[in-house]
TrEMBL record:
Region of interest (Disordered), residue spans: 27-47, 75-95, 217-261
Species per Swiss-Prot/TrEMBL record: Skeletonema marinoi
Coiled coil: none
Protein name: AAA ATPase
Domain Orc1-like AAA ATPase: 330-532
Basic and acidic residues bias locations: 217-230
Signal peptide: none
Length: 1358
C-alpha cells in the first residue's frame, strides 16, 4: 500500500488540533466519541493535563524518528549522491555532507521543522486494519490540504467533518521522518558532537514541543562582566543569509564567551505551554547547557538515549518527581527473567511429565530474590498460572503451617466468585482425593471446610473420626496414634502431592515460590522434597496418565548463610543428584553500574546523564545491592545530602558529602542509619513487631494490647512507620519491607532486651487467650505464636519459675496438636521445650510425674517418626527407668520395637516383643512343630464354629488396655516373622483371634482373622475356608472403622489369599490401586509391599518386559526413598529376572542405586541374607536364579537350583511357580536321561501334575494352561503322542484366552519341540515362529535367539 508524507510543521499543527479537540471537550464537559465526559470522570483539569501529555508523547515519538534520521542520514539521497550501497554509511556519508556544506551556507530556514517531513503508513496499524487505516489517512490528509488553503490549520472548527479518531489514527501511523540530503548536510555540517549541532537540534525540539512556535532568542555581551538581555532576531543569532564562510572563519579565534549565543527562559517558556519538566530540561540543555544548572550532552547518541528513556517511562518523566520513586520495575535482571520464562515454558509444554523442575535463586540479602520472583509471578499470572508464595521466617517455630497457609489462600480464592474453571478444578480435587484425605487436609487448610462441607459432614458422622470425649476413648485414640504415626508424615506428603497435582494442569500451571529456604525446618524440607521428587500423576511405577501435573517450584535462599553444615545443604545436594528433578541455579549478585544508574535515574526522575556521578558514589558504597541502594538513598534524604529543590524542580545532591560517607559494606549499618531517624516511640513499636518475625497481624496486636486505647496507640506508631517506608500494611497485616529491615530493628535491642520482649509478648498473649493447660479445645495459630514467644525467651535464659509447669503443659499440648496434624518435627520441638521447663532434679516427682511421662512418651514417638533413633533411645531409657508400672512403659516398648524393626534388627525386635508379651500374660512355645501349628489351628477353628460373620461384626469393641496392647504387639510381628520365622505366624494369628473373641475386637483383630485364613490355605490347603475368613477380615476392619489399615488388609488379602480364587489380572489391578490407597493413609510399608506384589503379579500375567523394567526401576527407587530396604531385597530379584529375560542384564546394574553401593551384585546380596538369618530373602534369590535358568532353557542348571530353593510343600505363590518350572524341567531332563535318573525325574514331574490339579480346581483362569502343559510333557515322556498333542493345544488355547502371552510362547515352543521329535517338521517350524512372535510380544529378547536357532536347524535339515 502507498505511504503518504506531510511536512513536520503540518504534522505539529495536526497534532495540536487533536490536542485542542481534547482541551475543548475537557473545558465544555463534552463526552468523547465513546461517550465519556471530560469534566466529571476524570475531572476537567485532569483531562486537560492528559491532553497536553498526549501531545508531548506524540511529539517525543516523532523526535526519536528525527534523531534516527540525523544519526543515519537520508538513505535514498545518500545513495543517489554517492552511487554507493546504502550500507556504506560512515566515510561516504561524511564526505557527502562536507561537500554539500561547502557548496552552500546555513540559511535561517534550516532551523525549522518545516524542512522535515513525516511519512504515514497503514502497516503500522496491523494487517487486519490496513485498508481502513489507509482510507483514514487519505481522508485526513486530503481534508488537511483543503483547510491549509482556506483557513487556519490550528482552528479545530475546520476539522468538524473529520473525527477525532480519524486524526488520532493518522497520527499513530507515522513511521519515519525525512529531510533532503542538502538540508541534512547543512544541518550536520559541524558534526554530531558539536555545540552548534546540539544548539540547532534544541531549536528544532523547541518548535516541535511548543506546537510550532520558535523560542525568544538572546545574546550575551562581549564584555567579561556585562550582560545584554535584549531580544534579537533569529537572523542575528544564526548569521545573515549573505554571510560567507570566511566571515565565520574569522570568528574562530575569538573568545568563546563572545561567540555564545543562547536562548533565555527556555525551561520556563516550555513549562508554561504544559511541556513536561524532563522535556524542558532536554531542550534547554541542547540549546544552552550553561543556563542555570544545565548539563551538556556528549553525543547525539546520548540525546537518543534520553528521548527513548522518556518515552519508555512516561509515568516517571512526564511528571514532577518530588519523592524517591521506588516504583521502577525490575532493573538489571533481564537475563534472569528470561531463564525463568524458559523454565516456565518447559513446564507448560510438558517437560515435567517425568521430571519436576526447581529454580533456586541464591544471593546475599537484598539482592532482589523475592522481587525477581514477584515479577515473574505477575507475568505468569497474566497467562493463567496459579501462584503460591510461602515465606519462611526465623521466628516462626511451626513453618509447616506457613506452607499450609499459602496453599489455603489459593484454595480460598478458588471458591470465590463461582468461576466455572475454578469449579472444575475443585471437582477434580474431590475426584482424585479421598474423603479422609480432604478431612486430613482441612486441619491444615481450613478453606476446605467451606469448599467441601458435604464431604466433611459425612466424615464427621463416621465413628472412627468422631472426637471422643471420655478419657478411655481419648487414650485409645492416642494408642492408635502410636501405631500409625510412622506413616503419618508420608501420608501428609502424599496428600499434598495429590493436591498439587489436582490444582495444576497445562492450562493452569502452578508456580510455587518458597522464600528464604534457609529458615525452613526439616519437616518443611521433607515435604518440599516429596513434592519435587515424587510423582503421583505417574501410575505408580512409570506410566503417565492423561492428566500430568504441571508446576514449577522456585526457592530462594541466602547463600552467604548456607554452608556445608547447614541443614539446607544436604537437601540441595539431594536435589542435584535426583533423577526426577531438573535443578536450575540462578546467582543474584549486585547489579551492574549501568543498571544502578538506571535505577537512580528513574528513582529521581532525572535522565541517565545527570545521575552518573551520583551512581558512582552510591555503587561504591552499596556494591550494587538493590536493597542497599534503596536504603542508602533514603538515608541521604534524611541526612539532607539529597534534597528536592523547589526552585530547580529536581533532585540535587552534595556529591562531596556523599563521597565522604564511609560504610563498611554492611547492610545493617545502612539500615540502622535509616531507622535511627525514626521517632523513638515508633522505634519501640517496631522492636515489639520485630520479635514476631517479618510480619505481625492485627490479631497479634489485639492480644498484646486488649485495651482499645493502648492498642490504638501501638497501631498509630506502626502506621507512622508505614509512612517512613520501613513497614507496609497489607490487609490486616503489618510487614517489614524486607527481612533485613526486621533484622536491623531486632538487633537494635540487646540480647537481654530481646528476651524480655519475647517473654512479655508471650505472657500477655497467653493471658489474653485465657489458655489453660487442662483445656481440650484445639489450639489456634495465635496460641502457637504465644508459646513460641515464651520458648524463644527461654532460649535466652529468661522465664518465670512460677509459671514453668504451665509453660510445660502448653508445650505438651502444642506438641500433641502438631503431631496429630502429622507435623512431627515441630511437635518434637515443642515437646523438647516442654521438658526443658521441668526441673531436672525433681521432674519425676509425684507432682509432675504424669506431665513428665506424657512429655517423654510424646518425645519417643516424635523421635521415631523424625528418624532420630539415638535420641529416641535416650527418652525410652529415661521413661523405662522412671515409669511406675508396666502400662506406663508400653508406649516406650512399642517405639523401641519399631526402632529395631526399622533398623533391620529383627532378632532383637522379636526378643523384645515376646518379652513384653510375657509381661502382658501371653506366652508362646519356643520350638514350633507342624503338630503344634495344626493343633492351634484346629482349636481356633472349633472356637470360631460358635460364631457367625454377623455375630463377629456386631461384637463389642476391645476395652481391656492390656489385651489391646498385646494384640498391637502381636500384629507388629508379622513383618519380622515372615523374614525370620514364618512358622510362628499361624500361632500369632490364632492367639489374636482367640483374644478378640474373648475380650472384644479392635482394628488389629482383623489381621488375626486374615492370618488365620491364610494359615488354613497354607497348612490345611483349605482354600475355601481361608478365602471365607479373609473376606470376613475385610468386613470386620471396615465395620470397626479402621480405614487407615484397609490398604494393608487389601494388600495382604490380594497377595496371599485372593489369588487362589480370583484371576491374577484382577488382583494385580487391585494391588495397583492399593498402593495409592496406602500412600494416601501414609502406610509407606504396605504401599511398598503392594508395589512389590503388583510388579510380581503383573509379571506372571505376561506384562511386556520393557514396561516391567521401567516399573520395577521406579518401584525400587520409591522403596529406597521411603527407606523400605527390606522390600528392596524382594524387588531386586524381580528386577534381575526382568533384565535377564529382556537382555538388558549387564547393561543395567540395579544394585548401586538401590543399595547405595553397599551391595554390588547378586552374590553379595545372597551372602548377606544367609549371614543375617533372613531365610526368606535367601530363598527368594535362589528361586529367582532357578526361574531364570528354566526360562533360558538351561535345564541341568535349573534342576540343581530347584533343589537348593526347595522348601517344605505348602500352598504359596512361590511354591506354585517353583512346582511348575521344576515339573517341566524334570520332564525335559527325563527324556534325555538314563532309566534310573529318568525315574526320579518322572516322579518329580508327576508330583507337579498332582499339585497343579489341586491348584487348577481353585482357579481355572490362573493355572489351567500350566496344568495342560505339564500333562502334555508327561504324555510325551510316556510316548502318548495323541494325548500329548491334545494337551499342548489345550495349553496354548487356554493361555491365549486368559492372556498369559509368555506361557503361550512356552507352550508353543514345547509343542514345536514335540512336533519335531515326531518328524512333523513343517508344523514344528510354524509353532516355533508363533512362539517367537509371542516371546517378542512379551519382550523376552534373551530367549528369541534360542527360537531362531531351532528354526535354523529345521531349515538346515530341509
Amino acid at each position: 500500500m502507498e505511504n503518504h508524507s506531510l511536512s513536520l510543521d503540518n504534522w505539529v499543527a495536526l497534532s495540536a488540533t487533536l490536542e485542542a479537540l481534547h482541551l475543548h471537550k475537557a473545558s465544555s464537559g463534552e463526552g468523547d466519541e465513546n461517550g465519556n465526559r471530560g469534566s466529571s470522570d476524570p475531572p476537567a483539569h485532569g483531562a486537560k493535563v492528559e491532553a497536553k501529555l498526549a501531545y508531548a508523547e506524540r511529539a517525543c515519538k516523532v523526535a526519536l524518528l528525527l534523531l534516527r534520521r540525523l544519526t543515519t542520514g537520508n538513505d535514498r539521497d545518500r545513495t543517489e549522491e554517492n552511487g554507493h550501497h546504502e550500507n556504506n554509511l560512515n566515510g561516504h556519508h561524511e564526505n557527502h555532507l562536507n561537500g554539500v556544506a561547502r557548496r552552500r551556507s546555513l540559511q535561517v530556514d534550516d532551523i525549522s521543522i518545516g524542512k522535515f517531513s513525516v511519512s504515514f503508513s497503514p502497516s503500522n496499524q496491523g494487517e487486519d486494519n490496513m485498508v481502513d487505516t489507509q482510507d483514514t489517512i487519505e481522508r485526513v490528509l486530503g481534508y488537511l490540504n483543503t483547510v491549509r488553503s482556506n483557513g487556519d490549520l490550528n482552528d479545530s472548527s475546520n476539522f468538524s467533518t473529520v473525527g477525532e479518531a480519524d486524526i488520532k489514527c493518522a497520527l499513530d501511523s507515522v513511521i519515519d521522518v525525512a529531510i533532503t540530503a542538502d538540508d541534512l548536510a547543512a544541518f550536520c555540517t559541524a558534526g554530531n558532537h558539536s555545540d552548534d549541532m546540539f544548539h540547532k537540534l534544541g531549536i528544532l525540539f523547541y518548535q516541535l514541543f511548543a506546537r510550532g512556535e520558535s523560542p525568544e532568542l538572546h545574546r550575551r555581551e562581549v564584555g567579561p562582566e556585562e550582560k545584554d538581555t535584549r531580544s534579537v532576531s533569529t537572523t542575528e543569532v544564526m548569521g545573515d543569509p549573505a554571510c560567507s564562510g570566511s566571515q565565520e572563519e574569522e570568528n574562530e579565534g575569538q573568545s568563546p564567551r563572545k561567540q555564545i549565543r543562547h536562548l533565555r527562559g527556555v525551561r520556563e517558556s516550555l513549562s508554561g505551554k504544559g511541556v513536561p519538566v524532563s522535556l524542558c530540561r532536554l531542550v534547554s540543555d541542547l540549546i544552552d547547557p550553561k543556563e542555570e544548572d544545565g548539563s551538556p550532552f556528549d553525543s547525539l547518541d546520548e540525546v537518543v538515549e534520553e528521548v527513548k528513556q522518556i518515552l519508555d517511562r512516561p509515568d516517571i518523566f512526564f511528571h514532577d518527581v518530588n519523592w524517591l520513586d521506588f516504583s521502577s520495575g525490575l532493573i538489571g535482571r533481564s537475563e534472569e527473567m528470561q531463564r525463568l520464562h524458559e523454565e516456565a515454558a518447559s513446564v507448560q509444554m510438558g517437560a515435567g511429565e517425568f521430571e519436576n523442575r526447581l529454580v533456586l535463586l541464591k544471593g546475599s540479602p537484598g539482592a532482589g530474590k523475592s522481587y525477581l520472583a514477584s515479577n515473574i509471578q505477575g507475568e505468569l499470572s497474566e497467562s493463567g498460572w496459579f501462584y503460591v508464595h510461602t515465606k519462611f521466617d526465623r521466628f516462626v517455630r511451626n513453618p509447616l503451617l506457613t506452607i499450609a497457609s499459602s496453599f489455603d489462600e489459593l484454595l480460598a480464592s478458588l471458591g470465590e466468585g463461582g468461576d466455572e474453571e475454578n469449579l472444575d478444578i475443585l471437582e477434580n480435587l474431590e475426584a482424585v482425593m479421598s474423603t479422609s484425605a480432604i478431612a486430613t487436609l482441612s486441619e491444615w487448610l481450613p478453606s476446605l471446610r467451606d469448599l467441601f462441607p458435604h464431604l466433611l459432614r459425612r466424615v464427621i458422622s463416621d465413628e472412627d473420626l468422631v472426637s471422643l470425649a471420655d478419657d478411655s476413648q481419648r487414650r485409645r485414640r492416642n494408642n492408635d496414634m502410636t501405631s500409625s504415626s510412622e506413616s503419618a508424615q508420608s501420608r501428609l506428603h502424599y496428600i499434598f502431592r495429590k493436591l498439587v497435582s489436582a490444582l495444576s494442569s497445562p492450562e493452569r500451571p502452578l508456580l510455587i515460590f518458597l522464600d528464604d529456604l534457609q529458615w525452613a525446618d526439616n519437616s518443611c524440607l521433607d515435604l518440599i522434597s516429596s513434592l519435587l521428587m515424587d510423582f503421583n500423576h505417574i501410575n505408580q511405577f512409570g506410566l503417565a496418565d492423561d492428566t500430568p501435573q504441571c508446576f514449577l517450584v522456585m526457592g530462594s535462599y541466602r547463600d552467604n548463610e548456607v554452608d556445608s553444615t547447614h541443614r539446607l545443604s544436604s537437601y540441595l545436594e539431594t536435589f542435584e543428584r535426583s533423577n526426577t528433578l531438573q535443578v536450575t541455579n540462578i546467582q543474584l549478585d549486585g547489579i551492574a553500574k549501568s543498571d544502578a544508574n538506571l535505577m537512580l535515574s528513574e528513582m529521581l526522575g532525572l535522565p541517565l546523564r545527570l545521575t552518573k556521578s551520583l551512581t558512582d558514589a552510591v555503587q561504591a558504597r552499596t556494591l550494587g545491592n538493590p536493597l542497599y541502594i534503596h536504603a542508602f538513598m533514603q538515608s541521604l534524604v534524611k541526612e539532607k545530602f539529597l534534597i528536592n529543590s523547589v526552585v530547580k524542580k529536581r533532585w540535587i545532591w552534595d556529591i562531596e558529602a556523599i563521597q565522604s560517607i564511609s560504610i563498611q559494606g554492611s547492610i545493617a549499618e545502612v539500615l540502622t542509619r535509616k531507622i535511627s531517624y525514626i521517632p523513638h516511640d515508633t522505634q519501640e513499636a517496631l522492636k515489639v513487631m520485630s520479635t514476631f518475625g517479618s510480619q505481625m497481624s492485627e490479631e497479634y496486636v489485639s492480644h498484646l494490647y486488649p485495651l482499645q486505647e493502648k492498642r490504638q496507640e501501638f497501631c498509630d506508631r506502626l502506621n507512622s512507620a508505614v509512612e517512613e517506608s520501613v513497614i507496609e500494611k497489607i490487609g490486616s497485616k503489618y510487614k517489614f519491607v524486607h527481612d533485613m529491615v526486621q533484622q536491623a530493628v531486632y538487633e537494635l535491642m540487646s540480647p537481654k532486651e530481646r528476651a524480655e520482649c519475647h517473654f512479655q509478648n508471650g505472657v500477655k498473649m497467653i493471658t489474653a487467650l485465657s489458655c489453660c493447660a487442662d483445656s481440650h479445645s484445639d489450639l489456634g495459630l495465635i496460641t502457637f505464636v504465644a508459646i513460641d514467644q515464651i520458648n524463644i525467651a527461654k532460649s535466652f535464659g529468661v522465664t518465670d519459675s512460677s509459671m514453668c509447669t504451665q509453660f510445660a503443659k502448653l508445650n505438651l499440648k502444642a506438641g500433641e496438636s502438631s503431631m496429630e496434624k502429622f507435623n512431627f518435627m515441630s511437635g518434637f520441638s515443642y515437646i523438647e521445650h516442654g521438658i526443658s521447663f521441668l526441673p531436672k532434679e525433681s521432674k519425676w516427682n509425684s507432682s509432675s510425674y504424669d506431665l513428665c511421662r506424657s512429655l517423654h512418651e510424646a518425645a519417643c514417638l516424635a523421635c521415631y517418626v523424625n528418624a532420630l533413633p539415638t535420641k529416641a533411645n535416650e527418652y525410652i531409657s529415661e521413661l523405662l527407668e522412671n515409669a511406675q508400672c508396666l502400662e506406663h512403659k508400653l508406649k516406650a516398648y512399642y517405639v523401641m520395637v519399631k526402632n529395631l524393626t526399622s533398623s533391620g534388627d529383627f532378632k532383637q525386635a522379636l526378643k523384645k516383643t515376646f518379652d513384653v508379651l510375657i509381661e502382658l500374660g501371653e506366652t508362646f512355645p519356643t520350638e514350633i512343630t507342624p503338630e503344634i501349628i495344626q493343633e492351634e489351628l484346629s482349636n481356633t477353628k472349633s472356637l470360631l464354629n460358635n460364631f457367625t460373620k454377623e455375630s463377629i461384626l456386631s461384637s463389642p469393641k476391645l476395652m481391656d488396655e492390656k489385651k489391646l496392647w498385646a494384640i498391637k504387639f502381636m500384629n507388629n510381628l508379622s513383618g519380622p516373622l515372615s523374614i525370620t520365622n514364618y512358622q510362628m505366624g499361624p500361632l500369632i494369628a490364632c492367639r489374636m483371634v482367640q483374644l478378640s473373641s474373648q475380650y472384644g475386637y479392635c482394628s488389629e483383630s482383623a489381621f488375626g482373622f486374615l492370618g488365620y485364613g491364610q494359615a488354613q490355605i497354607s497348612v490345611f490347603e483349605d482354600v475355601d475356608e481361608g478365602y471365607r475368613w479373609g473376606k470376613i477380615a475385610l468386613s470386620l476392619l471396615e465395620s470397626l472403622g479402621g480405614k487407615g489399615y484397609l490398604p494393608k488388609m487389601r494388600c495382604l488379602f490380594n497377595s496371599y489369599v485372593s489369588l487362589w480364587k480370583e484371576p491374577f489380572h484382577a488382583s494385580s489391578n487391585v494391588l495397583l490401586h492399593t498402593h495409592s490407597e496406602a500412600m494416601l493413609v501414609g502406610d509407606v510399608e504396605y504401599a511398598s509391599v503392594s508395589a512389590f506384589f503388583y510388579c510380581r503379579q503383573a509379571l506372571v500375567c505376561g506384562q511386556n518386559l520393557l514396561l516391567a523394567e521401567k516399573e520395577c526401576k521406579a518401584v525400587a527407587s520409591k522403596m529406597v526413598q521411603l527407606k523400605q530396604i527390606q522390600m528392596c531385597y524382594g524387588q531386586v530379584n524381580t528386577y534381575i529376572f526382568i533384565l535377564k529375560m529382556n537382555g538388558n542384564y549387564g547393561k543395567v546394574n540395579p544394585f548401586p542405586e538401590i543399595f547405595d553401593g553397599k551391595i554390588a551384585n547378586e552374590e553379595e546380596l545372597l551372602n548377606l541374607a544367609l549371614s543375617s538369618g533372613k531365610r526368606i530373602n535367601a530363598k527368594g534369590i535362589l528361586s529367582n536364579r532357578f526361574q531364570v535358568a528354566f526360562w533360558l532353557g538351561q535345564f541341568e542348571e535349573a534342576a540343581e537350583l530347584a533343589e537348593k530353593a526347595k522348601s517344605p510343600p505348602k500352598m504359596s505363590f512361590m511354591e506354585v511357580y517353583h512346582v511348575f518350572c521344576e515339573g517341566l524341567t524334570a520332564f525335559q531332563l527325563a527324556r534325555r536321561s538314563s532309566s534310573s535318573s529318568a525315574s526320579k525325574l518322572m516322579t518329580i514331574g508327576e508330583e507337579a501334575v498332582t499339585r497343579f490339579r489341586l491348584y487348577e480346581k481353585c482357579s481355572t483362569w490362573n493355572w489351567e494352561n500350566n496344568l495342560f502343559l505339564l500333562e502334555a510333557e508327561y504324555h510325551q515322556c510316556k510316548q502318548e503322542e495323541d494325548k500329548a498333542a491334545a494337551k499342548y493345544r489345550a495349553s496354548i488355547k487356554s493361555a491365549q484366552e486368559h492372556r498369559f502371552v509368555h506361557e503361550e510362547a512356552l507352550a508353543l515352543e514345547f509343542y514345536g519341540d514335540f512336533l519335531r521329535t515326531i518328524r512333523r517338521v513343517d508344523e514344528s517350524k510354524e509353532k516355533y515362529a508363533n512362539a517367537r512372535l509371542c516371546y517378542e510380544k512379551w519382550g523376552a529378547h534373551a530367549i528369541i535367539p534360542r527360537l531362531e536357532e531351532k528354526i535354523g536347524r529345521i531349515q538346515g535339515t530341509e
